[in-house]
Amino acid sequence: MQNQTTSHTWLPYVLYTVLILLIVLTMYQIDRQWLKLTEMQAVMTEQANVIRELRSSLSNGVLAVNNQSAAKNQPVAQVFKRAQAATQLPDYAAGDWNVEAFGTNIKTITPLISADAYAANVQAYVLESLISRNPDTLEWEGLLAKSWQVSADGLVISFQLREDISFSDGVPLTAADVAFTYHFIMTDAIQAPRERAYLDKIQAVNVKNPYEIEFVFKEPYFEALSLAGSLAVLPKHFYEPYLQQPQTFNESKGLLLGSGPYKLNNPSTWTPDQGNVELVRNERYWGDVPPAFNRILWKIIQNDSARLTTYRNGDIDAYSARPVEYQGLKNDQQIMAKSQNFEYMPPVAGYSYIGWNEDRGGKPTRFADKRIRQAMTYLTDVNRIIKDVFLGYAEPAISPFSNSSKQHDKNLSPYQYDLDKAKALLKEAGYADRNGDGVVEDQAGQPFEFKLTYFEANEDTKRMVLLLKDLYARAGVKMVPFPQEWPVMLENLQKKDFDAITLGWTSGIETDLFQNFHSSQALSKGDNFIAYKNPQLDGLIDNARRTVDETKRMPLWQQAEQILYQDQPYTFLMRRKSLLFVDKRVHNVQMSKLGLNLGSLPMENYVPAAQQKYTQ
């Protein structure tokens, strides 16, 4: 007999189904309420920040009105005049993104613990200093500071801050933040040895009132105003907790918050795993002239060919050409149709070098012998490197000082390739080919073999290193090319774990030799990572730094240069021209006494509305 279904058997299933549907609907409603609550909380937080800013403005007797008509009635500080002039151009428009490329991965963008120009480039859009140098006159102008006074003896500098400045999270910037920045850097547990080395000239930083800060120096210093005024101000409320956990700060990757025109979406969570580095507009920016771009984006593109293709396709806004491809690109109709072309030697061009590590593991290396370093310089045919690798788009570097600098001794000329002198110096130092294998050995029979560390993604450096390998072999010196990734290379540099390394330093209007060549800086993670020491040079550096009178200081720098010329702690290579293509969509790109204004701050570049292609 078949069983028949009755209402008593299917009714429970209906009830169970209804119950499940009710549970699902309830969960969905709870989720919607939770999302709505989260959105409301974000709005309330934003409103609280705005109210806090308004209170701060009212307490200072100032109420900012965010519209163009009001802005026109406000006086513009001198530091913003060039940026303001850009906004008056007929085709000026705000909006769009500025998209660039980095040729390497970045290890960290946290201030102080980062050690490369890439991170510094990012930080410049987020952190600000008290003063800034005018690109036309090279004179100092107020940025965070509206005025300053220097005592008659040069030992005390007082800055008066603007009272309308806040960090990107809405917290007002005051003199307490400036003082905190100094004390944070001077805390031994914080990994900031290079900054501490410079700030050691300062005896005290005193808060006179919420908007006045005083720097007291231990002794006269020729760059006292620059040192105090260029300090990138860190927000106390954000970084102070890391004084209790300094190791967390030292190992961090993306702790970056400031008062500048741009910010990280989240100032605590950036990591190298994200690949690109992206900054968004700081809508609370206090500056008299807000920047045009909504976002600044750096794409990580390590391959040279890939970077060129990306530029050709319009996905990045500038391309720095290699010498080997430059002329071809100038003849490329597609590239030239879309590009502005700039070929120039930057007024403050840095220099490339080979650094010879003189101490490894607490023991002197062969490079501790001056004769060996001189021999290596005689073997390094800089003129041929410039001709064959960089196709003439460079000039020899004699020292850290530019050939046009007042610091440079005009009587010095670059070392010339001389195989015979190199061999004679090696022989004098005890090296000879004792077993007929073509490699010279020291008196203990150890062959002259070393690794030259270089950045693996740079094709021009690779070509140079291979050329040097052949040149060195002519004197019986075996050099092993040792390419490394950028973060790994920086880590080994800090540990002094290398034989020799080729890198470059940026430069300035006047170069202070202290950090790179003073014996006191031959410390772990200091910039004298080659452990070079010369007491006579130390004395000249110390005297030059405390000599405020330029006419008396320059002869001291020239004497210091003569010692470096003889000692060759570095083999100074060259200063390279910039060979740059910039997309025509980017307007108001100009040369100044500081170089090209592309990306300079306060920002002067923009994209006209008709050529914009990125949305907010």
Automatic annotation (TrEMBL):
<dbReference type="InterPro" id="IPR039424">
    <property type="entry name" value="SBP_5"/>
</dbReference>
<keyword id="KW-0813">Transport</keyword>
<keyword id="KW-0812">Transmembrane</keyword>
<feature type="domain" description="Solute-binding protein family 5">
    <location>
        <begin position="141"/>
        <end position="509"/>
    </location>
</feature>
<protein>
    <submittedName>
        <fullName>Peptide-binding protein</fullName>
    </submittedName>
</protein>
<dbReference type="InterPro" id="IPR023765">
    <property type="entry name" value="SBP_5_CS"/>
</dbReference>
<feature type="transmembrane region" description="Helical">
    <location>
        <begin position="13"/>
        <end position="30"/>
    </location>
</feature>
<dbReference type="GO" id="GO:1904680">
    <property type="term" value="F:peptide transmembrane transporter activity"/>
</dbReference>
<dbReference type="InterPro" id="IPR030678">
    <property type="entry name" value="Peptide/Ni-bd"/>
</dbReference>
<dbReference type="GO" id="GO:0043190">
    <property type="term" value="C:ATP-binding cassette (ABC) transporter complex"/>
</dbReference>
<dbReference type="Pfam" id="PF00496">
    <property type="entry name" value="SBP_bac_5"/>
</dbReference>
<keyword id="KW-1133">Transmembrane helix</keyword>
<keyword id="KW-0732">Signal</keyword>
<dbReference type="GO" id="GO:0030288">
    <property type="term" value="C:outer membrane-bounded periplasmic space"/>
</dbReference>
<keyword id="KW-0472">Membrane</keyword>
<dbReference type="InterPro" id="IPR000914">
    <property type="entry name" value="SBP_5_dom"/>
</dbReference>
<comment type="similarity">
    <text>Belongs to the bacterial solute-binding protein 5 family.</text>
</comment>
<dbReference type="GO" id="GO:0015833">
    <property type="term" value="P:peptide transport"/>
</dbReference>
